[in-house]
Design brief:
Subunit structure (chains A, B): Homodimer.
Family (chains A, B): Belongs to the kynureninase family.
CATH class of the largest domain in chain A: Alpha Beta
Enzyme class (chains A, B): hydrolase
Distance between the termini of chain A: 31 Å
Protein name (chains A, B): Kynureninase
Number of strands of chain A: 15
CATH topology of the largest domain in chain A: Aspartate Aminotransferase, domain 2
Catalytic activity (chains A, B): 3-hydroxy-L-kynurenine + H2O = 3-hydroxyanthranilate + L-alanine + H(+); L-kynurenine + H2O = anthranilate + L-alanine + H(+)
Largest sheet of chain A: 7 strands, mixed
Oligomer: homodimer
Strand order of the largest sheet of chain A: 4-10-9-8-7-5-6
Radius of gyration of chain A: 22 Å
Order of helices and strands of chain A: HEEEHHHEHEHEEHEEEHHEEHEEEH
Chain lengths: 405, 405
């Protein structure tokens, strides 16, 4: 398969983009869905921000280097990747904090309704962010399995909160259909794009989505703990009240008045001072993904994952696939169930094949298409087959759990 | 005065620390209370985090570079600067977001009480963060002038929320006295240390403070929009419920369970994934301030501001000082009222003397003691005298307002 992989790489129009990333030697990185790789341009840009903008420019850079617009500018560059208008997205805070703002905003817009509907097994922070509002007496969490979500929509539901591509299985929701069903029941919809934004075409406005959030450090390659982003459809801007009413979301922050007045438009989603270093790194990652284009990226990620499955067949490996078989119905990942998934993942990492484990029994392999080669697929499949055939995962060092799994 | 200034500099035991910062030539930087200067060590450390930890280590760095403990580790290094125990401080989110967490936590702990008491003219975001909770029906804002605060404490007050050193005037509150008065009325106290932490000794535990927040990008020199910090006295940890219940505040975040359970201790104040780049820069700044020591820093900042006032006398300049006359009662700044403060500030900036303007009529000069010289005081006073005497501030370009003032 290695020969065929090399032919596919030679014919791949995106193959040149691998060199735009700084990847370590001897590593096949199948975890870009957890932390994206380092764009080559990031390091120099960060030196410029640190030495010139901060060191030389000091406080003047809020104007001279336009730090003051950074949240809006980076949001505006993310917008076309997710089918949003340029003034509908802002880059700020963490995904979790942005979830809170928008869950609370939905409760404010649908007064009388308290239920936030989601699915069990959604990414934990999406579910957890409801807990604080529940304790405040403002929200009530309702979970329904994915095939029962539409049936669980009633006139108590203020918000349907779902992750478009499931972090564990990679299964993709029908964004247009579920949004329409929720609207039919009078509810709003908040889409978490953490596992889809930057990896595949997302069309929030074509689906009439109300709200969305997403992660800056996965497919957008913004660096560890990068700022996240938030989307609010323009039709909701004027009526939107989110509770994190900080000075960067104020209509006139430098008037220093005692009373809060929300900024017009998407800026009212901002809260504290923009994290300039984090936004600068994120901007580099976003620009690179925008240059490649999400349509081409998704095309390649489908081809990569299909080829990987062929390689497993070639290796005569039978693993339980928990991701959808059809590559059009899943994100840029393949997840397999195995009772020893943790130890297998560690044995692969020791061989330089970095995937990840998700409790309790999932081996998750992400295929970030911007920097992976078909050759990586063939090699990863060979390593996986060898780990399983030799039983090297049984070594005690591979079974000991680290702090972060 | 320049000769005397140079003698004072020669005798100053902190003078060597100026070289630990990267300051631009030809600038006298009197705005470290708005954005701290760049420590010389930051740039190399950031290259290491970006190239080695992110680029080479990739996802493995959550364990191998101990990213997972960054929020707690940096918090632990801030703790001794503010009189807190090592497990009472965490570095995360923005000051605004941390204010929200702790205002809401106080309302949760004092159920039946809804009033958040503060003073008019407190830093805007402190006041604004009450607004979101008011709209949710959870809080009620009450403002009282500083000499009427104690009288405004009654059994409706859940929390007294004050900034220890006023951002505009530099006036310092009596932390011990006000904390005790609030406790006497059954209320909790939240201190914003943004203009005191890292510039002067703060002793939260000696004052029996309940909560505190503070800024990472002023006196801690963490870079533009650096992560902030939050303090909760250990006696409150077990009963603390803050509403931003994200996965990084979970007791077992990598078990990926559907239900939120707060981490034991200060970690429950975390919300989303730690901003690793921002925390790395902040850590460098904190370590440098800790090395110099807040007692020595405050001693020098008092000497600097007293010397600056002497220089003004020498220049025969009579300006209305709105900061306290006694340097023991003010933070590391001097604020002057002048109807043309904005234009004067701009004229000074054009001469390389960077202070700042605070609406509507305050010229604020900060004396960050870690990198300023007595010579800078003499020169700044000379420039200020020349600007006022020549009337050069009257030029139209100095009166045009920028986006960020």
């Amino acid at each position: 398969m290695l020969d065929r992989a090399r032919e596919l790489d030679a014919a791949d129009p995106l193959s040149g983009y691998r060199d735009r990333f700084d990847l370590p030697d001897g590593v096949i990185y199948l975890d870009g869905n957890s932390l994206g790789a380092l764009p080559r341009a990031t390091s120099a840009r960060m030196q410029q921000v640190i030495r010139e903008e901060w060191g030389e420019g000091l406080i003047r850079s809020w104007n001279d280097a336009d730090w003051i617009s950074a949240a809006r500018r980076v949001g505006g560059k993310i917008a076309p990747l997710i089918g949003a208008g340029p003034r509908e997205v802002v880059a700020c805070d963490s995904t979790s904090v942005n979830l809170f703002k928008l869950i609370a905003a939905a409760l404010d817009m649908r007064s009388g309704r308290k239920v936030i509907l989601s699915e069990p097994g959604n990414f934990p922070t999406d579910l957890y962010m409801i807990a604080g509002l529940e304790r405040q007496g403002l929200a009530e969490r309702r979970l329904a399995e994915r095939d029962k979500l539409i049936g669980a929509l009633d006139d108590d539901v203020a918000l349907l909160l779902l992750t478009q591509v499931h972090y564990k299985s990679g299964a993709m929701h029908d964004m247009a259909g579920l949004t329409s069903a929720a609207h039919g029941a009078g509810a709003l919809v908040l889409w978490d794009l953490s596992h889809s934004g930057g990896a595949m075409p997302v069309d929030l406005n074509a689906c009439h989505a109300d709200f969305a959030v997403g992660c800056g450090y996965k497919y957008l390659n913004g660096g560890p703990g990068a700022p996240a982003y938030a989307f609010v459809a323009e039709r909701h801007h004027a009526a939107l009240h989110q509770p994190l009413t900080g000075w960067f979301g104020h209509a006139a922050p430098f008037e220093f008045s005692d009373d809060y007045a929300p900024a017009p438009g998407i800026d009212r989603l901002q809260c504290g001072t923009s994290p300039i270093l984090g936004l600068a790194a994120l901007e580099v990652g976003v620009e690179l993904i925008a240059e490649i284009g999400v349509d081409r990226l998704f095309g390649k990620s489908r081809a990569l994952s299909e080829f990987f499955l062929e390689c497993l067949v070639e290796q005569d490996l039978k693993l339980e696939l928990v991701s959808p078989q059809d590559s059009a119905e899943r994100g840029s990942q393949l997840s397999f169930r195995h009772p020893e998934a943790y130890a297998i993942c560690q044995a692969l990492i020791a061989r330089g094949v970095i995937g990840d484990f998700r409790d309790p029994d999932i081996l998750r392999l992400g295929f970030a298409p911007a920097y992976l080669r078909f050759e990586d697929m063939a090699e990863a499949a060979r390593h996986l087959a060898e780990v399983l055939r030799t039983g090297e995962w049984e070594r005690p060092e591979f079974r000991e759990r680290a702090a972060v799994t």
